Amino acid sequence: MEMMDLSSYRGKKNVVLYFYPKDGTPGCTITAIGFSDRDTEFNKLDTVVFGVSRDDVLSHQAFRDEHGLSVQLLADTEEEVCRLYQVIQDKIVDGHPKSCLLRSTFIIDKKGVVRHILQDVNPRAHVEEVLKVCRSLDFAHAN
Question: What is the model's pTM?
């Protein structure tokens, strides 16, 4: 329940920042469990993983507790970060405007440079795909 600034990881860790629609939904649960289960592998790549949604911190805590998640979840209830990373898409649903969060992942190196973006991801294959990209960027041996 504290503010987090990605710049605090600059020079220290690579960052995987994944955006997901909602705590507790099937696809989001699969992804969060997948990242939690592969935590050791990301650590070996000197990489920290953050999940971001528009849910509040209480929802995140319940989601983490219910599924035993270790992945760090960030609350963006005002959509500031989501809009900054352009993962909000405004749609018309049943004749009414609705903002939808697009499943997207940003892989950021220790210098703070976005090295890879994955969009419209498949929750079942996503974590393995992110690991593959991190390995290909040689995060284990990068500065």
Answer: 0.91
